[in-house]
Amino acid sequence: MRYTNSLALACAMGLCGLSSAHATDKKTDPGNIPAVTDWSSRSVVYSKPMTPDEFAAAGRNADMGRLYNDPRYLAQLLRRIDAEMPAPAAPRTNTLQPGAGSAVAATAKATLAACPTKRGPDPRSWHCTDTPQAPDSSVVRDWSNVLGGGTNGQGGRGMEGVYPAKYRFDITQPVSAANCPTDFIVYPTNAPGATQVAGTNETWVYTFSAVPNNLQTFTIGPAGPRQVVLTASSTSNTQQNFRINGVANTIQNLRDAVNRWSGQTGYIATAITSSTITITANTLGDIPDDHISNGLSNVTGPGGVNGSGTAGQPTIIAFNQLYNGTCTTATGRDAADDAKAPNVMWSYNTGAGYVVETSPVLSWHDDAKQVAFIQRNGNTLQLVLLKPAALTTSAARLAAAANPTAITSSSAATYAAARSGSAAAMTAITLFGTTNTGSTPTYSSPFVDYAKDELYVGDGNGQLHKFTGVFKGTPTEVTSGGFPAPVASGMKLSAPVYYNGNVYIGSQSGAGDLGGKLHRISSTNGTKYDSVKLANVDSTGLRESVIVTGTPAGSGSVFAFLFNDGTAGDTTNCAPDTTTGGDQSACRVVARFTPGFAAGAQPAQRVYVGRGNSRVSSLYAGAFDDAYYNSSNGTGAMYIVGGDPLTTFDPTLWKILLTNGVMSSQVKGPVVGANCNNVNNDCLTGVWNWSPVTYAKQGSNEYIYFSMPYLGNQTGCNGACLYMYQLNNLRNGTGNTVSWGTTATANAALATPGGTGGIVLDNNSTAPGAAQIYFTQQAAGGNAVQASQSGLE
Fold this sequence. Notes:
Layout: H1 2-12, H2 20-28, E1 35-37, E2 44-45, H3 52-57, H4 61-67, H5 71-84, E3 92-98, E4 126-132, E5 143-145, E6 165-168, H6 179-182, E7 184-188, E8 201-208, E9 217-220, E10 228-233, E11 241-243, H7 247-260, H8 262-265, E12 267-272, E13 276-284, E14 292-295, E15 299-303, E16 316-320, E17 343-349, E18 361-362, E19 371-377, E20 380-387, H9 394-399, E21 405-406, H10 412-418, E22 425-430, E23 447-449, E24 454-458, E25 463-468, E26 476-477, E27 485-486, E28 497-499, E29 502-506, E30 518-522, E31 528-530, E32 547-549, E33 557-562, E34 587-593, E35 605-611, E36 623-624, H11 626-630, E37 636-643, E38 651-659, E39 662-671, H12 676-679, E40 694-698, E41 701-712, E42 719-726, E43 748-751, E44 760-761, E45 772-776, E46 784-788
Helix pairs in contact: 1-2
């Protein structure tokens, strides 16, 4: 704990950008150092961030004071410490169990509770066992939860490149049950906000005349991400199985199985008799009857009633009780709120008809008590600052996904005053000027400069907006002195990244010289420096945000990503079809600029990662490995999903080597999906996007994650899939160990209908369900999902 104690001391000295109250707390309680992970966590990378002891040993205390006021530096240091600290010993099962000689021994189950120091008047009745729990891989950890009500109960879904935002209360302590109420994750829903209109819930009633047959099925929900198929079993009564054992017991077991999965499906078993079961939609409205499908013999139906009214739809929703196994001592909808995972922590409709379609960000200094995000209704964009309040009753938590709280926007001054109170508050600030065209989606998530309490965001009409006082002061858009800054008229902009006085932002590519560039904007006066045009005309251009690093030393780098750059390639890593021209004559490129690039600058480097052959697709960011993060000079590797150099439409995983911060070479890896032109014949006109790559480290193990929206073909999953590669344990299709190259295949896979948005990870922990990744599915009815880092279980 030396690292974290010295860091806590630095925070107590006011060097971490935390509030004065928080810093004061650190003087007496050095344990609570929070960590926030959102889309911007990967956007500014510091190689080998230093602890206070390391700064002191290097004689760089002045640098420590400057860097520790940048929470992203501190967050990366906290993650480095978390990865380097020895993993805590596996938790032990400390249970109170009935003694062999007690009257209850034959029927009582083990009670998952701490053993008492006094065991009551009859010491023969109970005994304590203290044994190590099973390894994490034996625990069913993942969960899937609906993102709203919406039409037919299918509201909410993910969107490409959009990340949830995760908060961990204390990175200095092992994850335990204490983290269950405090740690949370926020998801945008990508669906129009709506308030519930009173009505009735649809019901399905089924009548049993006898026990169904073994292996027959009962299906909850329509085809898609939320559907669960329950299977009758003569032996098993867990997971998606329900045991058949007499009519009354079978009905009870089916009820429990339905309710085990109610968070994912949005349907609950509300009543049973000795011969009937009633299934109820968790949302209001007239739901199609075939959302429940009975394949059980000796069971007739459905009876029931049609629903009425209109379901609600949150624009943004948060969950706590995240860690299945650590936070779960019971299962099913009717379990106590502190005994299951996850719970809806809060759910808000922040504007009727408004959609949150980009990534949210969390405040830092106040233990993430505030959320900032952009919402859109047609061509109107608003910056929303929300101080949520946790739901307080079980009934409210169970209903919240389909019945969100409708919250009214207050003035910025009123919102600022409400921060110190316990009630929820919100202010929605309409962005200045004409901010979107065509009522089409925008792609710019907000970026916060925490040290200055300023926020930057692009819009759908080629402007960069700046706000002050977002989390600590009175939120205000800057509308003078060069802001909003004109970037590329009429073009969609990427998410911005602030670094050292500059804001870096990419633009959609229009005709001629319009857009398709990387732009550097002065954060003080809006002065703009455009790169040379990088993208082919009339293409997505630079939709992905950049990654800024501090290497090479003395200059640093800005990495930009584009699918269709229109250059001639290098014949080895990209050989475009120049005879066809147009979409075919392009390359996927990682372009490296120096942070102070001049107007009209070419990239300092272009690295080709396959052909780029679609004007409507986007190249999303790669991820650095542990060698890069721990190198003092930026030596390591980046992994990215690109294309094949010669075969036009084959998605391919690449490794880009970096030496002293400079890209030195690239090594082609495995083809990870089928050729979409051969299968669908739509690659030139259809969107062919893969998720950004996310990197994680647990102990000595290194993992990368990415998803395919369709046609994935790696071991364990075909079609729309999330894949994990363990970089220090690569295997080929026959299970043999291999080095990086074309024969490596995924170590684990998970079906993800529609592919995923951005993938966020959390802890380096052996606590059950605590080392996880989080994402959303993009198919209609896509859910918020959590899966294990090590096995995608």
